[in-house]
Amino acid sequence: MSLLDGILAADEAVLRAARGSPAWATPLFVVITFIGGGWGMLALVPFLAREATRATTARLVAALVATSALVSTVKALVGRVRPCDALAACEPVFIASPGGHSFPSGHAAGSFAFAAFVASVRPAFAVPVFVFAALVAWSRCFLAVHYPSDILVGALLGTSIGLVAARLRGRLDLKGSSRSGTRSPASSRPAPGGTGTPD
């Protein structure tokens, strides 16, 4: 057996063990996968409406759109069939097969792009957003619509894009501050005998 065959066999074995187990968690993972499929982005609308958070949120949305575009491109190039369509023993749990290609997982990529961006901007939220991203990603194996390797690669792609977008956000803010005429510490120092306040 080749290394690739071994990896594929392990992929299928983990998927079969994860599929629909535990059964009581089915409603939870159905809801989580629904939110992670893009409907969760509706929660960003209030932040887009507020001037104070609009620019940052717009960059987050751009990161999610870029993630979706990259995932779609890779899926078209790889063309991997979903496990629920390829394996007789892995019918989808509760939901119908989404169709299309399997590798990588768009749910995993999008949720981890969101988590990486938010964690970079607001480190205090790092644990909850990454926990939720992991649940979204795992829901795809639980429901048998993705292989474990699909969600792993999707998570890596999404995390990379989220981190790049967050780093870009910081650089754009710094450039914006310099263009807006922010005074240097030396220029804000009070003149001798003066108060340092504008006339």
Automatic annotation (TrEMBL):
Residues 58-166 form the Phosphatidic acid phosphatase type 2/haloperoxidase domain. The chain crosses the membrane at residues 24-48, 60-78, 125-145, 151-170. PANTHER family: DECAPRENYLPHOSPHORYL-5-PHOSPHORIBOSE PHOSPHATASE RV3807C-RELATED, SPHINGOSINE-1-PHOSPHATE PHOSPHOHYDROLASE. Residues 177-192 have a biased composition (Low complexity). It comes from the Bacteria. This is Phosphatase PAP2 family protein. It is found in: Cell membrane. Keywords: Cell membrane, Hydrolase, Membrane, Transmembrane, Transmembrane helix. One of its GO terms (cellular component) is plasma membrane. It is a multi-pass membrane protein. SUPFAM superfamilies: Acid phosphatase/Vanadium-dependent haloperoxidase. InterPro entries: PAP2/HPO, PAP2/HPO_sf. Residues 175-199 are annotated as: Disordered. Its main location: membrane. One of its GO terms (molecular function) is hydrolase activity.
